[in-house]
TrEMBL record, chain A:
Belongs to the binding-protein-dependent transport system permease family. CysTW subfamily. The keyword Disulfide bond does not apply. The gene is potB_4. The chain crosses the membrane at residues 35-59, 99-119, 131-156, 176-199, 236-257, 284-309. GO terms for biological process: transmembrane transport. Residues 95-300 form the ABC transmembrane type-1 domain. One of its GO terms (cellular component) is plasma membrane. Its main location: membrane. This is Spermidine/putrescine transport system permease protein PotB.
UniProtKB/TrEMBL annotation, chain B:
PANTHER family: THIAMINE-BINDING PERIPLASMIC PROTEIN-RELATED. Coiled coil: none annotated. It comes from the Bacteria. This is Spermidine/putrescine-binding periplasmic protein. It comes from Pseudogemmobacter humi. Transmembrane segments: none annotated. InterPro entries: SBP, TAT_signal. Signal peptide: none annotated. Keywords: Signal.
Amino acid sequence: MPETPADFRYPLRWRLMDGIEALADRIWPRRLAPWTGWLLITPALLLVGLLVLGLIQIADSSLRTLDTATFLPSEDWSLANFEKALASRVYLTVAWRSLLGAALTTFLTLALAFPYAYALVRTRRPWVRKALLITLFLPFFIGQVVRAYGWLIILGNSGMVNEALSLVGVAPMRLLFNYPAVIFGMVQYMLPFAVLLMVPALAAIPAETETAAGSLGANWLRTTWHVVLPMAKPGLIGAGLVVATLSLTDFAVPAMLGGGSQDFIANAIYDQFFRTADQGLGSALALMLVAAGSVLVGLVFLVFGAGTLSMGGRR
Amino acid sequence: MANDVFRPTRRSLLRGSAAVGAAALFSGLPARRLMAQDAPGKPAELIVRAWGGSWVDALKKGVSDPFTEATGIAIRHDLTEDNEIQPKVWAAVAQGRVPPIHINWDTTVNATKSALRGVTEDLSDLPNLANTTELAKPVGLDGYPIVNTYGYVYVLAYRPEAFPDGAPTSWHALLDPKFKGRIALYNDGIGFHFPAQVAGGGKLEDIPGNMQPAWDFIAKVKEQQPLLGEDPDFTNWFQNGEIDLACTISTNAREAKKNGVDLAWTVPEEGCKFDTDGLWIPKGLPENELYWAKEYINFALTQGAQQVWLDGLGLPGVVPGLTPPEDLVNDPSYPTTPEQIAELIRISTKVQVENESEWFAKFKEIMQG
């Protein structure tokens, strides 16, 4: 056996790794190895735990009514806030508007995001991919409020669009402060989210499958319908879920592009918390919104299965 | 020699005039309060919640800067909306924490809610209260949990270009088909409920028992597709040519006019809502900070501070002897006598506090339907 030279030293990287391993062993000894999985999900548990604590507080608040003589919540619990919310025509209108808005936004966003993501993945020209990425990310870096203000400037009565229309003799028209304007603003806001969620799913589809479909006689439409879309389902479902839940709970776009008459549920909750100081009713509405969002996600899992999101489920 | 002549720079001139102004303003203050040896330790700063734009500019010029000049205490203006700071202050007091602000510049109605909840300090011992009019006293509350500092009017602001025959004389102008989609109200209807009651054929004495005429009139206005927003929205909408008519506080209309927007305002025959804003201090402050916060409010009640602050806002104050800004002399939105105030619509704070949530909800129900 050859002798180790006296001046032999292990490489620096090895020694560093040994040091880190020794330190890790001190912080988390090997005997605790069976619990390592729990350690890794501790941050998530803390986060969810805080959320649950907040929800418990909100649930407690939702069961207390406001006494307008003292502006204090009642000592006793009751379901009065929920009854009031369910009996009120305005909250039903706002809830329906929010749900319809979320559905429309999701459909339109996915319809626009799919070809964009597909082009991003399949293009063979690097400059096109870069241009598509820049175009995608540039608005992504600008906050939602600033983007909404941008639309106020562009679509206003004296905005760029109306200015352009006036050049061809069209009188200025109201393009803002209505439901279509809100949906338009939300689709524009959600598009980058949807594209980013779809790209990994589309990139995972080998281009050869499309070539194979083509060699068997399928045109691009049939290939897209029978091959690409089914294989991209995890991306579509994931993007759809994110867009739907974000749209359902959106505040800024309805507030700014809706002109005050196109409130979503989040706007109604804000009003109760901050305008009328009725935190009980605001909490009841917030819980109902959480329930609606949860039911939506639950239904998607029920219909498509968690496996659709590539999470290892049976379906 | 030219060099011997003192040539003040622009900055030194400004500094000098600020010092003279502060001295003049403080001449009305009992010196003992600000210079007293036994005064508690000064905090480095006081945080005053304020509305932004021209509102905070006026407060800074009239009250905050001269106060800093005289005491050395910096004033930080927190521009969180009054409705948003309210739950934060309430939570801080309920949890025994130091509140996030020292002084809240608030609407009297909102402030009264805080007073009823018991989160406000009593300000009855402010010496300058002795020099104020009855407008400074909050109605229906014991002592001075709030000090009202001025009154304001929700006027009918309009673009003169849209009214070639002269100012609109009635709130019914909002129903003119040619203004469909070109009118604006506050998004909770504040300022409009009471004139709507009169315009709808009802009586002010029926408030709050029977406000059906107001809701009927508001339902007609809804058919006109009004824009609904907050103070800054009105200025933007007028500036961008989105609207011709709006129910807004005269200060906003005046500011838009100062910014070059062709705008005027009027008090229609049905009347306009008159209300007050005030200053109050949340409970839970350290003793020395409470002392200096009270000094700030006391200073805001001096004639000098009121004159500069309210010149900026274009609103009538609570100290006798103030001179109206030149552009507001004889303006009905700047009432200076009890008789002039009586010509406007003034509903008791108590009624407003108890019913405001319901009115806002009803307004929303109509507008969101």
